[in-house]
Amino acid sequence: MKAFNDENFLLDTEAAQRLYHEYAEGLPIIDYHCHLIPEYVASDHKFPNLSKIWLEGDHYKWRAMRTNGVDERFCTGMDTTDWEKFEKWAETVPYTMRNPLYHWTHLELKTAFGVEKLLSPATAREIYNHCTAMLQTPGRTARGLMRHYNVETVCTTDDPIDSLEYHKQVKDDGFEVKMLPTWRPDKAMAVEVPADFRAYIEKLSEVSGNAINTFADVIDALQIRHDFFASMGCRLSDHGIEEFYAEEYTPDEIETIFKKVYDREEYLTAEEIRKFKTAMMVEFAIMDHDAGWTQQFHYGAIRNNNSRMMAQLGPDTGFDSIGDFTVAKKMSRFLDMLASRDKLGKTIIYNLNPRDNELVATMLGNFQDGRYGAGKIQFGSGWWFLDQKDGMEKQMTALSNLGLLSRFVGMLTDSRSFLSYPRHEYFRRTLCNLLGTDIEKGLLPASEIDFIGREIVAKVCYGNAKEYFKF
Length: 471
Description:
Elements: H1 14-24, E1 29-31, H2 38-42, H3 50-54, H4 59-67, H5 82-92, H6 100-113, H7 124-134, H8 142-148, E2 151-155, H9 165-173, E3 178-180, H10 194-208, H11 215-231, E4 236-241, H12 251-262, H13 270-291, E5 294-299, E6 301-302, H14 307-313, E7 321-322, H15 328-339, E8 346-351, H16 357-366, E9 377-379, H17 389-402, H18 422-440, H19 449-469
Parallel strand pairs: 1-2, 2-3, 4-5, 5-8, 8-9
Antiparallel strand pairs: 6-7
Helix pairs in contact: 1-18, 1-19, 10-11, 11-13, 12-13, 16-17, 17-18, 18-19
């Protein structure tokens, strides 16, 4: 019987073990999409205990705890201690078997703190005390953990109106890990609530120094901020959308819609919302193309399903799910809107519904362009509910069957936690097992194992991202 979480965890064959240990293990990490708090990196934040670094803000764990019957006050409440929250998490962990949380939990404990015991109520206090003590040392601060995991670059997620002061501080400090911003302009196209949209545009006007009276003024103000982000090292944008928008529109129509929502704060029709979002997405894409950035689209989530808990806790607290949208025609039309103008730059598309794997994988081939080098249009790694072994394998299998796995830019954490870097290890082991199994079955030539390790494994795990993003 194979041991759990040993050096050959997830590696079922000798070929897989060789690929991982010789070509993937120890490679630097380029985490090109995450939600780390930049201030924590700037201040080299020291976490007071294991609960603070591990449970605070982690909606994955909160969902599991709620499902296990844990009261909300032990997830997000203010009237419980950090130890009490951790104790409830430790009670939940044994019941997360076959959920990726079980794997992530024990990988993180092992790689960050050297803990190889299983987390349970019986071991909770010992593990909590041990890890909390280690978190008080220089090697386990925010920056210490990034060094520990051999992180080379991280790209945070930032609103166009953000000052990026902490990114500047990190750079000025000479910290060896690059922390770069990512442009996330979702609020600039969120016209569903007119009062909120107006308030946001007024803030945009203030930080850009550009008076806003027309739609063209909005684009000018955003361009000013886009240029500022570029000056701070930004090389990617990111867009969290339910679906792609690709409505036909005229400049006059968009100006009329803008006046309606901004000047009069009137609610828009569904058609007006789609047209406005289309125009904004096209403008964003042109900015990215002209700046040489990569645009990312995370689509397919239905957010904030539980209205009572949304009112109580706000967004990003564990009440989102996979959506069921018809996307192929709109995705194609949107990409073609840009390609027909020769304004389609490097693009990464992440789907949340696994039924779309083959859809996305085939869509890529329609818009590849050798002028941009290999893999201009990328099929993003398994995201959110799909960033686990089964989801990763299905994404890579679809990409292999319908595109080129060898040109894939690999994994990211999409996380707020400084303990989430083992997700890269998890991905790397899964990739090596996928290829190693093919070698053992004779589906790939064993004589080419060194080529596979050097030209596929090492590049998918690190080299392709380094070349693609050119940080």
